[in-house]
Amino acid sequence: MKQTKELGVLPIGRLIARFSVPAIIAMLVNAVYNVVDRIFIGKLVGEEALAGLTVVFPMMMIIFAFAGLIGIGGSALLSIRLGEKDYKGASHVFGNTVVYGLLITSIILATFFVNLDGLLAIFGAEGQVLHFAKDYMTIILMGFIFQMISFILSNFVRTEGKPMLSMSAMIVSAVSNIILDYIFIGIMGMGVQGAALATIAGQMIGLMIYLTYYLRGRSNIHLVKKDFIPDFKVLLSILSIGFASFISTIGTSVAMTFINRDLAIYGGTMAVTSMGAINSLFTFFIMPIMGITQGTQPIIGYNYGAKQIGRVYKTLKMGLIICTAFSTVVFVVMEVWASTFVMFFLEAGSETIPMAAKGLRIFIAMLPILSITFMGTAFFQSTAKGMTSMMLGMLRQFIFLLPILFVLSRIFGLDGVWWATPIADALTVLVTSIFLLRKIKSDRMEYGGLDEKVLVMEEI
Known about the structure:
The protein contains 16 helices and no strands. It has helices spanning 2-5, 12-45, 47-83, 87-114, 116-122, 127-142, 144-159, 163-187, 191-215, 232-305, 309-336, 338-342, 352-363, 367-382, 386-412, 414-446.
């Protein structure tokens, strides 16, 4: 219990480092094996296979959206309960989150397996690309239960003050995946099926580490049988908090589906393959920002539950500064060496390289300020402002990106497809900033003023 209580007393900078550094390392390693998957596929199987993984990416995002809905919602609620010193309530949240995770997994598998061919067609897979996409997704779906439970438990151990355990499990999982990629794809020639098998096997190994921790009774959470009895009120709380992550991820899936379709129309398979490389790079370099965001959530949630509002806002401020500084450096590096980065995924001399490099430079145009969106949404989730975080989660893809994509692609063709994302990013950052500033003003009035040295968000 000591690690949990330290969330309310240790210096914020020290806490962010303790929680974010392991999360960053873990997520970077996690991103590495996604990149390695695509490098192996692009180099050893071919650009059509890489296009197949690009087309299937939106479907995978839908699956992961449900993991985020339950895992992030449950861990945020758990953090608040721990801050309130409601340890029985925390255990009840834990048990219910696992149960609902299993139930949702069952529904997803039944739905997707029955309609797999039709769903892949909806997402734009056809011909040889459809063949590669189906081979990959069939195996991913079969192992989704391991990914769901692993994601839930990784969020829980961080919330309990064990970020190093979460990092260790994710690193072991990722390294196992990379090794198996080499064996299944490079040596055994299993293609996209080998990539999918390596991913699932890596997730299983990581899950074993989490289960060992909990089964040996090392957790601060002490479960009893009634904690696993479904509680509809707990479910509603989990859903209200986690829905922002869910709708944001679903929005990414929908947006990527339409982006891939427009890329195919205005740029052909080369453009879709380019997006595969761009997505992998963007995911890899955005992971540290997500790691910092994850690291701040238990700190914000605990102190919000403990009514230590000054510490809540100091955490938000420091998180924003760190994320913005990092993303600015990444932006400059990728803008300067865009061609070098995309060449990791494509054969030397490929005609796709110039197109992918140009698309990358445009796609990341708003990266220096994008952390405001991520931190803002995470802040409202961690403080149980479900409706606000849900609305912010919908902004980027549903409200801004899709209409902008529809208009720009029909006016400017392929360039319009590339520019739709950064324009939507800029508008989302603007709206998120407005909501954050309004919330700060509201809390100043409610709590009779806050320490100006702690809470000077207007400077950011």
